[in-house]
Design a protein that fits this description.
The protein has about 170 residues and is α+β, with helices and mostly antiparallel strands. Helices cover about 35% and strands about 30% of the residues. The radius of gyration is 25 Å and the shape is elongated. It starts with a helix and ends with a helix.
C-alpha cells in the first residue's frame, strides 16, 4: 500500500491552485494538432471538484458557448493542464452544483466573495512554466525558419525577375 502511495506522489504536480466549486476559472490546456502544439483557454464555472488530495483530482468546468452549455473535466495534475487561474469566487453551499445546468440568465448568477486573487493564483509550478517557455521557444524557432524560407524564395523570385527584365531590355535594343 505504501508503494502505491509513493508512486501516486511521483505523478502529482508540485503546486496546484486551490480550486473550489463556485469558482470561475481560466484553464490553460495544451492542445496538439498534428505536429503543432498550442495553448487553449477554457473559462467557466467550476461545478464539481473530485478527490482533492489525490493525484487524480479533477474539476468539471461549465460554460455557455453559442447558447449551448459545454462542460469539460480537467485532471489538475495532468501535464496537459498548464495553468488554472481563479478569476472569481462565489458563495456556494454545495460541492456539486448540478442545479446550475437548468439555470440561465439572471437566475444563474452566484453571489461573489472577496478573496485574495494573487495569493490564490500565486502558486508557481516551475516544471509547467519551463514547459510553457519551451513551447514558446519552439513556436518562435518555427516562425523564424518559415520567415527565412520565405525571404530566400522572395530573393530567388527577384533574381528571376531581374534576369527576365535584362533579357527584355537586351531584345529591345
Amino acid at each position: 500500500m505504501e508503494y502505491i502511495k509513493e508512486l501516486n506522489q511521483t505523478f502529482k504536480k508540485g503546486a496546484v491552485v486551490d480550486v473550489r466549486s463556485g469558482d470561475t476559472v481560466k484553464v490553460h490546456q495544451k492542445i496538439k494538432e498534428g505536429s503543432k502544439e498550442r495553448v487553449q483557454i477554457f473559462q467557466g464555472l467550476v461545478i464539481r471538484c473530485d478527490r482533492k488530495d489525490s493525484h487524480t483530482s479533477r474539476i468539471t468546468v461549465r460554460r455557455i458557448a453559442s447558447g449551448v452549455g459545454v462542460e469539460k473535466s480537467f485532471l489538475l495534475h495532468s501535464p496537459l493542464v498548464l495553468k488554472v487561474e481563479v478569476t472569481k469566487r462565489s458563495k456556494v453551499r454545495r460541492n456539486y452544483l448540478s442545479y446550475m445546468r437548468k439555470l440561465t440568465g439572471k437566475s444563474a448568477r452566484l453571489q461573489g466573495l472577496d478573496f485574495d486573487r494573487q495569493a490564490v493564483n500565486g502558486v508557481v509550478d516551475k516544471h509547467a512554466e519551463a514547459e510553457a517557455a519551451k513551447l514558446a521557444e519552439e513556436t518562435a524557432k518555427a516562425a523564424e525558419a518559415e520567415a527565412s524560407a520565405k525571404a530566400a524564395e522572395e530573393a530567388e523570385l527577384e533574381a528571376k525577375a531581374a534576369a527576365v527584365q535584362a533579357k527584355h531590355e537586351e531584345n529591345k535594343a
